[in-house]
Amino acid sequence: MTPIKTDDAVKFLREAARYFDNRPTGGEDSAFWSNVANAQTCHRIADLLHALPKPKDKPVRTYEVSVVGFPPVKYSARSPGKARSRAYRDFTGAFDSYKPFGEFMAMSTVRRIADPPGCGDRIVVAGETVTRVYSPYTSASGVYFMRDGSDAISSVHPSEIQSQAAGEAQ
Predict the structure, then answer these.
(1) Paired sense of beta strands 143-146 and 153-156, if any
(2) How many whole angstroms separate alpha carbon 61 and alpha carbon 50?
(3) Using CA atoms, how far apart are residues 2 and 104, in angstroms rounded to an integer?
(4) Which one of 1, 10, 66, 102 has the fewest beta carbons within 10 angstroms of its own beta carbon?
């Protein structure tokens, strides 16, 4: 089951409140007050959820994953485990063979390394502030980035970067 996001819950509660505000009562006084109470409850819960602090993403860091018999590869990820799982997908995809993740863990190591120049910079792409990341597939024609709230790495042509995010870390 997909977890419900706070913003989606707030939208749902606001819609439910609108429903109760406009629900026909057929002239019944008890139905009217029931609708009023339900709408007010929806608004109060939505206000409480909206006031909750937004969870912060873990920062994007650079990790080096070493696999026995192969040279180490750098990955940008929000945790060492996510770097290792990305390396596992690359490893199994490159050799077109299945190896259980447990075996891969036994033959691999992960360590935090210094971020390459530009990695971790906040940049603006299509009006959205994102984090520039390192990718083992880096090319001269692409800049790789990670959106806030996501672990997926996307790429964009350098000409599509609008600016360095103002006030963000260089």
Answers:
(1) antiparallel
(2) 30
(3) 28
(4) 1
CATH fold group of domain 61-113: Ubiquitin-like (UB roll) (3.10.20)
Domain boundaries, the chain: 6-51, 61-113, 122-164
Residue 156 CA, chain-centre distance (Å), reads 18
Q: How many CA atoms lie within 13 A of 113 on its CB side?
A: 18
Q: Which residues pair with 164 in a beta bridge?
A: 123
3-state secondary structure of 124: strand
CB 130 within 8 A of CB 148: yes
Tell me: the pLDDT tens digits for 100-135? 888 889 999 999 999 988 888 899 998 888 999 987
Between CA 46 and CA 7 the distance in angstroms is 9
Distance CA 145, CA 8 (A): 25
Judging by beta carbons within 10 Å of its beta carbon (0-12, 13-18, 19+), is residue 58 exposed, middle or buried? exposed
pLDDT given at position 140: 65
Apex CA 153: angle with CA 96 and CA 150, to 5°? 120
